[in-house]
Each structure stands twice: as structure tokens, then as C-alpha cells.
Amino acid sequence: MSNLSVNYLGLALKSPILAASSGLTAQLDRVAEFERAGVGAIVVKSLFEEQIVNEAEFLNSQSHDYPESADYLHHYLRQNSIDRYLKLIEDVKRTVSVPVIASINCFSTGEWTLFAKEIESAGADGLELNIYSLPLNVHKKSDDIEKEYFNVVSKVSKSIGIPVAVKIGSNFTNIPGFVSNLKANGAKGVVMFNRFYSPDIDIKKLRIFPADAFSHPDEYLKELRWMGIVSALVPGIDLSASTGIHNGTVVLKQILAGATTAQMCTALYKKGGDAISNAIADLNLFMDSQGFKNISDFKGRLNYSNIENPEKFERVQFMKSFGSK
After folding, report:
1. Is the peptide bond before 193 cis (omega within 30 degrees of 0)?
2. How far is it, in rounded angstroms, from Cα 55 to Cα 179?
3. 3-state secondary structure the chain
4. Which residue from 73, 197, 254, 311 has the fewest beta carbons nearer than 10 Å?
5. Domain residues of the chain, as ranges?
6. What's the rounded Cα separation, in Å, for the pair 309 and 307?
7. pLDDT tens-digit profile of 141-200?
């Protein structure tokens, strides 16, 4: 039997497959199912800064005549949300023996350093920071936006002893440079990439509605390109593939490109723990057939630095492929 264990963020995982942050990882019966299927770690459903802030601002707007009451409700709401999340972490930790990684969706430095300490105290083995704020200020420079990310990561990383990973979107000008700066500010890992909810238009009812939240199997291709490049250009940081991780074949491709782990979400909604066990079987079959004993034997084997023609990862390759057709 092949050895599927990996080291991610300094954590010993029995497999490279993670259950991504979602509503499923807030359900104790489901996380237990995922552990039985062979998951390496659980990323607990996120605590959302935006939701807490919006609810608190709404309470303030409704209680402007009673500022003391508004302050009390604001504090109660914030603390109640955090306390519920801390209990969720504790419950998940009691339910599974695999590492448990907490998740925070945030867009500012705010009080997250304090929340991160509480999350660590609740028993989380690691913390995944999902930082994003939609850039709407036409006068704001891209450097300033990136500095906000680095500031959050630096403050949180310095405040806690557990490792921090950062989940990022794909819309940065220089992704390898951005990841390198995240590493310099304390990040032990980077998750590529965040899949945002997208608006769609109903042309019959003339309204905006949310597009399908589930990923599609071919969405892994964008991650694959950057996984191969970033793993080569930014050594010393763990990379986790996210979006389009529907089966073991895609997990293998991401590891060959340089990923340490791959996170399943949509596949778990559609197939449950079977998605994990089937992917584990694919990994074992591949490794046995290729003569690999450990994941490290082939991790990054096809990244930007290790292939004969690294330009295959570059955008210009599209023109070379189709220019003669």
C-alpha cells in the first residue's frame, strides 16, 4: 500500500485530500463521514466578518435613539457569533482525530487578531484566512490593496502559534510575487484559488440572481497553470489546490504540478465521503502503477522548473497551439 501522508503547514496529514470550508464541515456527522473516507484534514465552515459587521451596523441603525442599547446589542451579536464558532471548532475536534483548520472570511485587520487567539485556544490546529474585499474605489492603487492583505496576514501570524494559510483569488497582477510576499509576512501556506459567488442576469424577469455556486470539473485548469508556476518560483510555502477538485485524477494533476494538498467541496456535496474514498483509490492505483512509494516522490515533478519546456505553462503557448489551425 502506498504512503499517502503529507506535511501541510507543519501538520501531519494521512492523505493530501482536505474537506474544504463549507456548510458540510459544520455538520458533525459529515466530518465523521469524511474522516472514515480518508480525509487528511477538515477546514471548518468559515466565520464571516462581513456578516457580523453588516448585522451589527443594522442594529446600530435601528437603535440610534438608544446608543447604550445599540452598543450592547453590537457587542452581544459579535461575541455570540464568535462563541458559536469556537464551540463548533471544539465539537469538530472532539468528533475527528485528523487536524482541524479554522477558517475566517475577512476584509480588514479589525479585531481578527483577537479572534484568532480565541480560535487557537479552542483547539484549532491551523487557520485559513480568506481575505477579500471587492475593489470599488477607482482611486485606490493596487499596491495599497495588496498591502492590506499583507497587513492582515502579518498581524494574525504574529499573534498566534498555529500555522496560517491564506486563500486567495486569481485576480492579482503578479501571483508569484504576491504569494512570495504572503510568505514573507508569515503565511505558511496559500490556497489557490477562491471561487467567488458570481452574479447572473435573468433576461426574462430583468433581475440579477446568483449563478451556480458549484464548481465545474474543468475549472481546475486555471489552478493547474499557477500551481505549476508558483510551486517552482516560490519554494518553501505549502500550496493547496481549490476549485474543480472533483476526483482523484485532478488531485494527482495538482500534486504533479506542485500542490501539497487539494481541497474538495462541490464533490462532497454531490457524492459525500465517496468522493474522498474514490480519490484515495485513484491515488493508490496511480502510485502503485508508477512505482511511487510516497507523495513526495512525484510532488512537483511537472512544475515550471522540472519540465523540459517550461513555456508550456505560459500564456503564449495558446498561440503556438492554435496559430496553425
Report:
1. yes
2. 32
3. CCECCEEECCEEECCCEEECCCHHHHCHHHHHHHHHHCCCEEECCCEEHHHHHHHHHHHHHHCCCCHHHHHHHHHHHHHHHHHHHHHHHHHHHHHCCCCEEEEEEECCCCCHHHHHHHHHHCCCCEEEEEECCCCCCCCCCHHHHHHHHHHHHHHHHHHCCCCEEEEECCCCCCHHHHHHHHHHCCCCEEEECCCCCCEEEECCCCEEEECCCCCCHHHHHHHHHHHHHHHHHCCCCEEEEECCCCCHHHHHHHHHHCCCEEEECHHHHHHCHHHHHHHHHHHHHHHHHHCCCEHHHCCCCCCCCCCCCHHHHCCCHHHHHHCCC
4. 197
5. 6-322
6. 6
7. 889 889 989 999 999 999 999 999 999 999 888 999 999 999 999 999 999 998 777 889
**Cell matching residue 213:** 455556486
pLDDT band at 135 (very low <50, low <70, confident <90, very high): confident
Question: Cα separation of 7 and 15, whole Å?
Answer: 9
Cα–Cα dist 324/153, whole Å: 46
**CATH code for residues 6-322:** 3.20.20.70
Residues sharing a CB contact under 8 Å with residue 296, sequence separation 6 or more, in sequence order: 6
Give the C-alpha separation, 127 to 242, whole Å: 16
* Residue 297 pLDDT grade (very low, low, confident, very high; cuts 50, 70, 90): very high
Neighbours of 170 (CB within 10 A): 15
| 254 contacts 225 by C-beta, under 8 angstroms | no
